[in-house]
């Protein structure tokens, strides 16, 4: 340790090997105090591990039974009945065996390490017995869970058209985010009840309840949440003992709803374009960057005071673009095109020079040699005059030389 010498009115110099963090000195007229270094506060980051998904039912109670007959032909590949276009009426009157509880049942499974994995259908129905050993996801779909258009979030194949009863997996021809909910027991606060039960499965865009008919239409923001909610709430109950009847909704004939859907599709396309383009370029186009706006006003004037070129002129691209940036990459192509056109013109001129001159007309005639040759080669058939018929009668030799 370094020695400290007390001298009046004298500064203390420590050896170089003593660091500033190890000792702190306070010099006075007669004494020099050595204080302990201040303790540094270290922030500890505690990362909580994701909990494993729990089994929703006891595996011992699961029995592998063949599915109930709901069609005319049994498909051994998909292990289900086919041919029936409508759902079994007895099954639609039976309450579901379980219900998914997102707060308790969700967790990590084997599928979390595989990007693009599908969600567990039995987890959505509340009857999965595998828990963390399941090969599918046990959680709610998020905004970044995007699947191909021909399959749903559970990996089932969609069809070109909906079933007659609007049940089943659905169709890939239309992005349907609205669910039809039937057999609702109407009460004074039915809208609040429907919103509370269906909001468990994802963000909702709007809800419409027809109290006089006992039905509701629930529209989710994302398609995957609508597919998940349709399976999670099938044959469930709200507050009473009703058994809900869930189907895919038909297209809304309201013109306002159609315009709203078209506007939503345009916004999705615009958002995809924004993500693909650089942020500064998007800010310049949308006019959100003031500096870019001033620079655009100066550049689009092209030396003319008070003139600002419109967007279709300023951002145009091609060899004839006014903006020099728009001509980048097209100058070489334009030069090559000009060279090709010049070569074609030279070839045409050479062909004209090499072409033999037309034959001159014969002197003293009005027809050219080509016309005379065509006339000579033509075969003209001249009809001969028919011979007069010899008449028979008493005046046969009248006007003859023998008389």
Automatic annotation (TrEMBL):
Family assignment from sequence similarity: Belongs to the RRM CWC2 family.
PROSITE patterns on file: RRM, ZF_C3H1
Domain C3H1-type: 115-141
This protein's name: Pre-mRNA-splicing factor
InterPro entries in UniProt: Cwc2/Slt11 (IPR039171), Cwc2_RRM (IPR034181), Nucleotide-bd_a/b_plait_sf (IPR012677), RBD_domain_sf (IPR035979), RRM_dom (IPR000504), Torus (IPR032297), Znf_CCCH (IPR000571), Znf_CCCH_sf (IPR036855)
Gene assigned in the entry: CWC2
Residue ranges with Low complexity bias: 372-383
Residues in C3H1-type zinc fingers: 115-141
Family matches, as Pfam families: RRM_1 (PF00076), Torus (PF16131)
Annotated compartments: Nucleus
Biased composition (Polar residues): 24-34
Biased composition (Basic residues): 41-53
Listed SMART domains: RRM (SM00360)
Residue ranges constituting the RRM domain according to the UniProt record: 177-272
Gene3D superfamilies: 3.30.70.330
CDD domains for the chain: RRM_cwf2 (cd12360)
Main location: nucleus
Domain of life: Eukaryota
Record field: transmembrane: none
Nucleus found in the keyword field: yes
Keyword annotations of the record: Cell cycle, Metal-binding, mRNA processing, mRNA splicing, Nucleus, RNA-binding, Spliceosome, Zinc, Zinc-finger
SUPFAM superfamilies: CCCH zinc finger, RNA-binding domain, RBD
Positions of the UniProt region annotated as Disordered: 1-68, 345-403
């Amino acid at each position: 340790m370094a020695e400290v010498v007390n001298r009046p009115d004298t500064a203390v110099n420590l050896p170089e090997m003593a660091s500033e963090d190890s000792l702190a000195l306070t010099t006075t007229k007669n004494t020099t105090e050595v204080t302990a270094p201040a303790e540094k506060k270290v922030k500890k980051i505690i990362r909580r591990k994701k909990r494993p998904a729990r089994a929703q039912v006891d595996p011992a109670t699961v029995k592998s039974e063949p599915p109930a007959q709901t069609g005319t032909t049994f498909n051994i590949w998909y292990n289900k009945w086919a041919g029936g276009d409508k759902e079994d009426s007895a099954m639609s009157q039976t309450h579901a065996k379980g219900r998914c509880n997102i707060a308790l049942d969700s967790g990590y499974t084997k599928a979390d390490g595989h990007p693009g994995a599908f969600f567990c259908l039995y987890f959505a129905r509340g009857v999965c017995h595998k828990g963390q050993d399941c090969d599918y996801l046990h959680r709610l779909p998020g905004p970044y869970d995007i699947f191909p258009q021909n399959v749903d979030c559970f990996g089932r194949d969609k069809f070109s058209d909906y079933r007659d009863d609007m049940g089943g997996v659905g169709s890939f021809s239309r992005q349907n985010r609205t669910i039809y909910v039937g057999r609702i027991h109407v009460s004074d606060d039915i809208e609040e009840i429907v919103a509370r039960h269906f909001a468990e499965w994802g963000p909702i865009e709007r809800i419409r309840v027809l109290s006089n008919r006992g039905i509701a239409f629930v529209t989710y923001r994302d398609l995957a949440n609508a597919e998940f909610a349709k399976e999670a709430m099938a044959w469930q109950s709200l507050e009473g003992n009703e058994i809900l009847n869930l189907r895919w909704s038909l297209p809304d004939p309201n013109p306002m709803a159609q315009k709203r859907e078209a506007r939503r599709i345009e916004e999705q396309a615009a958002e995809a374009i924004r993500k693909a383009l650089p942020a500064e370029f998007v800010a310049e186009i949308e006019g959100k960057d003031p500096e870019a706006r001033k620079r655009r006003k100066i550049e689009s004037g092209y030396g003319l005071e008070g003139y600002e070129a419109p967007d279709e002129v300023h951002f145009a691209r091609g060899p004839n673009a006014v903006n020099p940036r728009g001509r980048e990459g097209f100058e070489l192509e334009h030069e090559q095109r000009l060279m090709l056109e010049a070569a074609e013109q030279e070839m045409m001129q050479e062909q004209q020079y090499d072409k033999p001159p037309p034959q001159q007309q014969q002197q003293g005639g009005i027809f050219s040699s080509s016309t005379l040759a065509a006339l000579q080669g033509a075969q003209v058939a001249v009809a001969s005059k028919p011979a007069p018929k010899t008449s028979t009668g008493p005046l046969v030799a009248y006007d003859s030389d023998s008389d």
